């Protein structure tokens, strides 16, 4: 089992102006006589998380409306660590037969590093390309599938238009390209635009 989740703590990098992660022990065992009770606050898009279409489309599906089988099953990790821009042409040599989920490894945001100032760009044409090849979930080791300063979010929208869902912020340090079994289930958050996940790979 390989944990590809980023740790949530006070030092977890977050989107600028986003709600940072915090955990507080609001009642101790000494106070309650039986248990410790904590609470946490965070943005839905901190560390390793999924985007629901509602994140960028007011009429898009929310987290609780997404089919959970998207986030469990065989996945192909593709090594694209030399690319500053990822296009369909970069993937023409990959055999995507019988592949439903892919994770693109860029190594552009190593686990533990501060929030990046720039990341590789994913060409919006990848939406149609992945749809043509039967891909339904695309993961990245980046905070976003679009440039960090994008307001139009072209790749997010291209993915939604092609029924492709998004997993962001996975930690792939030391993980080799190849086939694995993925589990990255979101919390069942009613009406939410995203959710943290505990993303785990298993060798197959």
UniProtKB/TrEMBL annotation:
Catalysed reactions, as listed in the record: N-formyl-L-kynurenine + H2O = L-kynurenine + formate + H(+)
EC annotation from Swiss-Prot or TrEMBL: 3.5.1.9
Broadest EC class assigned to this enzyme: hydrolase
Keywords per UniProt: Hydrolase, Metal-binding, Tryptophan catabolism, Zinc
Gene Ontology molecular functions: arylformamidase activity
Keyword Zinc listed: yes
Task performed by this protein: Catalyzes the hydrolysis of N-formyl-L-kynurenine to L-kynurenine, the second step in the kynurenine pathway of tryptophan degradation.
Name of the protein described by the UniProt record: Arylformamidase
